[in-house]
Amino acid sequence: MPDIQRRITTIGETALHIAAAANQEDFVKNLLNRLSRENLAAENNVGNTALHYATAAGNVKIAKLMLEKRSDLPNLGSEEKPLFMAASLGHSQMAQFLYNKTKGIVCGWNQTEQAKLFITCVGGELYGIAMEILMINRNIATARNMEGKTALQLLARNPSAFVSKSRSWLKFKQENSKQASELFKKCLQEYRGDDAVIQNVLFDAAEEGNIECLIMLIRLNLIYYGKQKGGKAYFMLRLRSAMKAYSASLMR
């Protein structure tokens, strides 16, 4: 009988790697019946297991089959973990599946790892997972991505993340929009009193025509500044300044 676990490509992939990448569910199932639990941990030359390949393909069914055989697979591999991969690719179902399987471990990650996953989820519009991670560690609300953008900036520059209540016919986006709004509010709380950040986010939202985001910014900050003497007038001055800067940018 041939060795079904041997590497068959120049980058060290096994038959299971290839089958997972090709979405061959029946073939994967047959391979899993013949492979040992240890075989599933096999990595290619860059440290990716077959679960990484299933993740990249977004095939939750194959991922489930693999985890039934070996439940710790999401934590294996010497390169980027499958959960990060799913989040960066925007595979929402796969990311949620993997997060549900590993959330206990995510709680024990250091702040750098949690922050990376958080900002990756925000960038991938996986707001439900991002909110759960933020509830684990509120300090990551100020995390930045590789381009130096915070979660507030990413949300402010993404009008499609917010669905107006008047457009209730977009039922499929309602839940994600609700999560985006809650996430925005939670992150904003970490910047209360930081005028430079608030003005930048106001500008970002105005520049992108993100009306829902602007409304939240105005409401939340009027409440905050309203508790201070002359605060409301001060905030409105900052708002007008942001709008003026936005108008000037359109004239360039």
UniProtKB/TrEMBL annotation:
This is Ankyrin repeat-containing protein itn1. It holds the Pfam family Ank_2. Gene3D superfamilies: Ankyrin repeat-containing domain. The lineage of its organism: Eukaryota, Viridiplantae, Streptophyta, Embryophyta, Tracheophyta. SMART domains: ANK (SM00248). It comes from the Eukaryota. ANK repeats lie at residues 11-43, 46-78. Keywords: ANK repeat.
